[in-house]
Amino acid sequence: MKTFIYPGSFDPLTRGHMDIIWRASSLCDRLIVAVLKNNSKEAFFSPEERVQMAQLCLLPFSNVLVCSFDGLLVDFMQEQKAAAVVRGIRSESDFRYELELSATNRLLYDKYESFLLPARQDYAIISSSIVREVASYGGDISAMVPEQIENIIKERFSPNN
Ligand code: COA
After folding, report:
1. What distance in Å separates the CA atoms of residue 61 and residue 63, rounded to the nearest whole number?
2. Are 143 and 14 in contact (CB under 8 A)?
3. pTM for the full model?
Protein backbone atom coordinates (compact mmCIF):
# COMPACT_ATOMS: atom_id res chain seq x y z
CA MET A 1 0.00 0.00 0.00
CA LYS A 2 1.66 3.20 -1.19
CA THR A 3 0.85 6.24 0.95
CA PHE A 4 1.68 9.83 -0.01
CA ILE A 5 1.28 12.90 2.18
CA TYR A 6 0.19 16.31 0.94
CA PRO A 7 1.08 18.72 3.79
CA GLY A 8 0.20 22.38 4.10
CA SER A 9 -1.59 24.97 6.14
CA PHE A 10 -4.73 24.90 3.91
CA ASP A 11 -5.96 28.18 5.39
CA PRO A 12 -8.31 27.59 3.54
CA LEU A 13 -8.13 24.83 0.90
CA THR A 14 -8.30 26.27 -2.63
CA ARG A 15 -9.11 25.01 -6.11
CA GLY A 16 -5.34 24.90 -6.69
CA HIS A 17 -4.94 22.48 -3.79
CA MET A 18 -7.90 20.42 -5.10
CA ASP A 19 -6.21 20.03 -8.47
CA ILE A 20 -2.99 18.76 -6.84
CA ILE A 21 -5.00 16.36 -4.61
CA TRP A 22 -6.96 15.01 -7.56
CA ARG A 23 -3.80 14.36 -9.56
CA ALA A 24 -1.71 13.02 -6.66
CA SER A 25 -4.46 10.66 -5.49
CA SER A 26 -4.25 8.77 -8.77
CA LEU A 27 -0.51 8.13 -8.22
CA CYS A 28 -0.83 6.33 -4.87
CA ASP A 29 -3.09 3.98 -2.93
CA ARG A 30 -3.75 6.44 -0.10
CA LEU A 31 -3.23 10.18 0.02
CA ILE A 32 -3.18 11.92 3.39
CA VAL A 33 -3.98 15.62 3.26
CA ALA A 34 -2.09 16.75 6.36
CA VAL A 35 -3.14 20.07 7.85
CA LEU A 36 -0.32 21.69 9.80
CA LYS A 37 -1.66 22.80 13.20
CA ASN A 38 1.00 25.23 14.33
CA ASN A 39 2.83 27.05 11.65
CA SER A 40 5.16 30.03 11.96
CA LYS A 41 2.43 31.82 9.95
CA GLU A 42 -0.54 32.51 12.19
CA ALA A 43 -3.58 30.81 10.68
CA PHE A 44 -6.92 32.57 10.24
CA PHE A 45 -9.02 29.39 10.46
CA SER A 46 -8.54 27.00 13.40
CA PRO A 47 -7.01 23.57 12.68
CA GLU A 48 -10.48 22.01 13.25
CA GLU A 49 -12.11 24.39 10.74
CA ARG A 50 -9.39 23.73 8.16
CA VAL A 51 -9.74 19.96 8.55
CA GLN A 52 -13.55 20.13 8.36
CA MET A 53 -13.50 22.28 5.21
CA ALA A 54 -11.02 19.93 3.54
CA GLN A 55 -13.12 16.91 4.55
CA LEU A 56 -16.24 18.47 3.03
CA CYS A 57 -14.46 19.02 -0.28
CA LEU A 58 -12.76 15.63 -0.35
CA LEU A 59 -15.72 13.40 0.48
CA PRO A 60 -15.93 12.00 -3.10
CA PHE A 61 -12.26 10.91 -3.07
CA SER A 62 -12.28 7.36 -1.74
CA ASN A 63 -8.50 7.08 -1.20
CA VAL A 64 -7.96 10.53 0.35
CA LEU A 65 -8.10 11.18 4.06
CA VAL A 66 -7.65 14.42 5.95
CA CYS A 67 -5.95 14.84 9.30
CA SER A 68 -3.97 17.41 11.21
CA PHE A 69 -0.41 17.13 12.41
CA ASP A 70 2.02 18.97 14.59
CA GLY A 71 5.79 18.82 14.79
CA LEU A 72 8.16 17.69 12.09
CA LEU A 73 6.85 16.51 8.73
CA VAL A 74 9.47 13.74 8.61
CA ASP A 75 8.17 12.32 11.93
CA PHE A 76 4.59 12.35 10.68
CA MET A 77 5.72 10.74 7.44
CA GLN A 78 7.38 7.87 9.33
CA GLU A 79 4.37 7.45 11.66
CA GLN A 80 2.13 7.07 8.61
CA LYS A 81 4.65 4.86 6.76
CA ALA A 82 4.41 7.24 3.83
CA ALA A 83 6.59 6.72 0.77
CA ALA A 84 6.66 10.37 -0.31
CA VAL A 85 5.42 13.90 0.15
CA VAL A 86 3.56 15.75 -2.60
CA ARG A 87 3.84 19.49 -3.14
CA GLY A 88 2.46 21.78 -5.84
CA ILE A 89 4.71 24.19 -7.72
CA ARG A 90 3.14 27.43 -8.97
CA SER A 91 6.23 29.47 -9.76
CA GLU A 92 9.99 29.64 -9.79
CA SER A 93 9.97 30.89 -6.21
CA ASP A 94 7.83 27.91 -5.10
CA PHE A 95 10.37 25.65 -6.81
CA ARG A 96 13.31 27.23 -4.97
CA TYR A 97 11.44 26.97 -1.66
CA GLU A 98 10.61 23.31 -2.30
CA LEU A 99 14.24 22.48 -3.09
CA GLU A 100 15.24 23.90 0.30
CA LEU A 101 12.39 22.11 2.05
CA SER A 102 13.28 18.77 0.53
CA ALA A 103 17.00 19.21 1.21
CA THR A 104 16.25 20.02 4.87
CA ASN A 105 13.88 17.10 5.20
CA ARG A 106 16.41 14.75 3.64
CA LEU A 107 18.99 15.83 6.23
CA LEU A 108 16.47 14.88 8.92
CA TYR A 109 15.34 11.62 7.31
CA ASP A 110 17.47 9.94 4.67
CA LYS A 111 14.51 8.10 3.14
CA TYR A 112 12.63 11.37 2.55
CA GLU A 113 11.20 11.61 -0.96
CA SER A 114 8.95 14.17 -2.63
CA PHE A 115 6.93 14.68 -5.79
CA LEU A 116 6.60 18.21 -7.13
CA LEU A 117 3.54 18.65 -9.33
CA PRO A 118 3.34 21.74 -11.54
CA ALA A 119 0.18 23.75 -10.83
CA ARG A 120 -2.36 24.25 -13.60
CA GLN A 121 -1.66 27.60 -15.25
CA ASP A 122 -5.09 29.04 -14.38
CA TYR A 123 -4.62 28.15 -10.70
CA ALA A 124 -1.02 29.31 -10.45
CA ILE A 125 -1.93 32.70 -8.99
CA ILE A 126 -4.26 31.36 -6.30
CA SER A 127 -3.06 31.27 -2.71
CA SER A 128 -4.91 30.96 0.58
CA SER A 129 -3.94 34.52 1.54
CA ILE A 130 -5.39 35.90 -1.72
CA VAL A 131 -8.65 34.05 -0.94
CA ARG A 132 -8.69 35.55 2.56
CA GLU A 133 -7.95 39.03 1.30
CA VAL A 134 -10.69 38.96 -1.38
CA ALA A 135 -13.17 37.44 1.12
CA SER A 136 -12.36 40.09 3.71
CA TYR A 137 -13.55 42.77 1.24
CA GLY A 138 -16.67 40.77 0.36
CA GLY A 139 -15.29 39.95 -3.10
CA ASP A 140 -16.19 36.98 -5.29
CA ILE A 141 -14.07 33.94 -4.32
CA SER A 142 -16.04 31.39 -6.37
CA ALA A 143 -13.27 30.89 -8.94
CA MET A 144 -10.70 30.28 -6.21
CA VAL A 145 -12.28 27.87 -3.73
CA PRO A 146 -14.34 24.68 -4.02
CA GLU A 147 -18.07 25.43 -4.02
CA GLN A 148 -18.62 23.21 -0.93
CA ILE A 149 -16.79 25.71 1.30
CA GLU A 150 -17.44 29.04 -0.41
CA ASN A 151 -20.25 30.03 1.96
CA ILE A 152 -18.39 28.86 5.07
CA ILE A 153 -15.50 31.16 4.16
CA LYS A 154 -17.80 34.07 3.31
CA GLU A 155 -19.66 33.71 6.61
CA ARG A 156 -16.43 33.75 8.62
CA PHE A 157 -15.59 37.07 7.00
CA SER A 158 -19.06 38.56 7.33
CA PRO A 159 -19.21 41.68 9.54
CA ASN A 160 -21.54 39.85 11.98
CA ASN A 161 -18.80 37.37 12.90
N1 COA B 1 -2.57 25.90 -5.04
C2 COA B 1 -2.90 26.96 -4.30
N3 COA B 1 -2.14 27.44 -3.30
C4 COA B 1 -0.99 26.82 -3.07
C5 COA B 1 -0.57 25.71 -3.80
C6 COA B 1 -1.41 25.25 -4.83
N7 COA B 1 -1.08 24.20 -5.60
N8 COA B 1 0.63 25.32 -3.33
C9 COA B 1 0.94 26.16 -2.33
N10 COA B 1 -0.04 27.06 -2.18
C11 COA B 1 -0.06 28.20 -1.25
C12 COA B 1 -0.78 27.96 0.03
O13 COA B 1 -2.15 28.29 -0.09
C14 COA B 1 -0.05 28.91 0.95
O15 COA B 1 -0.59 30.21 0.73
P16 COA B 1 -0.52 31.38 1.82
O17 COA B 1 0.92 31.57 2.18
O18 COA B 1 -1.09 32.51 1.09
O19 COA B 1 -1.35 30.94 3.00
C20 COA B 1 1.38 28.90 0.41
O21 COA B 1 1.28 28.46 -0.90
C22 COA B 1 2.33 27.94 1.05
O23 COA B 1 1.73 27.29 2.04
P24 COA B 1 1.71 25.75 2.38
O25 COA B 1 1.58 24.85 1.22
O26 COA B 1 0.68 25.59 3.43
O27 COA B 1 3.13 25.53 2.85
P28 COA B 1 3.84 26.10 4.08
O29 COA B 1 5.06 26.69 3.53
O30 COA B 1 2.99 26.94 4.97
O31 COA B 1 4.09 24.78 4.90
C32 COA B 1 4.94 22.59 5.21
C33 COA B 1 4.79 23.76 4.30
C34 COA B 1 3.66 22.23 5.94
C35 COA B 1 5.29 21.43 4.31
C36 COA B 1 6.11 22.87 6.18
O37 COA B 1 5.86 24.08 6.86
C38 COA B 1 6.30 21.77 7.19
O39 COA B 1 6.67 20.68 6.86
N40 COA B 1 6.11 22.08 8.49
C41 COA B 1 6.26 21.12 9.56
C42 COA B 1 7.51 21.44 10.39
C43 COA B 1 8.73 20.86 9.73
O44 COA B 1 8.85 19.69 9.47
N45 COA B 1 9.73 21.73 9.50
C46 COA B 1 10.99 21.32 8.92
C47 COA B 1 11.00 21.39 7.43
S48 COA B 1 11.62 22.95 6.94
Report:
1. 6
2. no
3. 0.95
In the chain, the N- to C-terminal Cα span, in Å, equals 44
| Residues tagged active-site | 17, 41, 90, 128
Read out DSSP for 79-114? HTT-SEEEEEE-SHHHHHHHHHHHHHHHHH-TT--E
**pLDDT tens for each residue of 91-102:** 999 999 999 999
Pocket test for ligand 1, best of 39, 74, 106, 114 (most atoms within 8 A of CB): 39
The reported pLDDT for the residue numbered 159 is: 79
Best CA proximity match to 51, nearest among 7, 14, 89, 10? 10
